[in-house]
Design goal:
GO terms for molecular function: DNA binding. This is Helix-turn-helix transcriptional regulator. The protein is of the alpha+beta class. It folds into 2 domains: 64 residues, lambda repressor-like DNA-binding domains (434 Repressor (Amino-terminal Domain), Orthogonal Bundle); 137 residues, no CATH class. An 8-stranded antiparallel β-sheet has the order 1-2-3-4-8-7-6-5, covered by helices on one side. A hairpin with a 2-residue loop joins β7 and β8. α1 runs parallel beside α6 and α2 crosses α3. The protein is globular and about 55 Å long.
């Protein structure tokens, strides 16, 4: 497998867009696109950064091999990653963000929401109200494959749960953790920042009302093995 193909496979497996990978490396998205098209090649400094970001040795990244068992498994796993993300987007926009029905509490006074589709199951379970914490997780054929833990709090009287739900319905495939990087409606502004990839990430979200911060939440998570 050539470098350009390995790079595309590894980037997608980590859940990174070309823009996100470029930001990690400190280059332009166009440079990443050219590398994946075979129209350019990174210098040694960028190869080291790619190695660290994609969690693969420089030697294995640049060496061409006809039968690379490691990358073959990554390509197989990448399909599973894309399936998980597609399912997760449907689950997130069908439960809390969509005022979905609550399930029976799994723990004392917990709020639980479920969503299933074929072999996949999603559960969001949280505790508290004005200051709260919880976990979202995905199972595939009964096996847990991904989770996110979060804790948040209200900071002002003007908090709008309707606005938060509206923002969360705009979750993106590139960062399928909470809401979009920026969402605005009237006096309210939502921000979400994250680092890492679908395999291992962390971040936080905030809501401002007329430039006053009224809500914050921190999250982290990744794939389970």
């Amino acid at each position: 497998m050539e470098f350009k193909d390995k790079l595309a496979v590894l980037r997608r497996e980590r859940g990174l867009s070309q823009e996100a990978l470029a930001e990690f490396i400190g280059i332009s998205r166009q440079a990443v696109a050219k590398w994946e098209l075979g129209q350019g090649y990174p210098d040694i400094d960028n190869l080291i950064k790619l190695s660290n970001t994609l969690k693969i040795s420089v030697d294995r990244l640049i060496k061409e091999e006809e039968n690379d068992y490691f990358l073959a498994n990554i390509m197989k796993d990448n399909t599973n990653t894309e399936e998980i993300i597609e399912f997760l987007l449907k689950a997130k926009t069908s439960t809390y963000a969509a005022y979905g029905p609550k399930e029976a509490p799994s723990r004392p006074q917990s709020q639980d929401l479920h969503y299933s589709d074929g072999d996949y199951l999603y559960i969001d379970s949280y505790l508290g109200a004005e200051q709260f914490g919880g976990e979202e997780a995905v199972w595939y054929q009964g096996k847990p494959v991904w989770c996110i833990n979060y804790t948040g709090r209200l900071l002002g009287e003007n908090f709008s749960g309707d606005f938060l739900k509206d923002a969360l319905r705009h979750v993106t495939k590139e960062a399928p953790y909470r809401g979009p990087a920026l969402y605005q409606d009237g006096d309210y502004t939502y921000h979400c920042y994250s680092t890492g990839s679908f395999e291992w990430f962390q971040g936080h979200e905030e809501i401002y009302c007329r430039s006053v911060k009224i809500y914050e939440l921190f999250f982290h998570g990744g794939k389970l093995r």
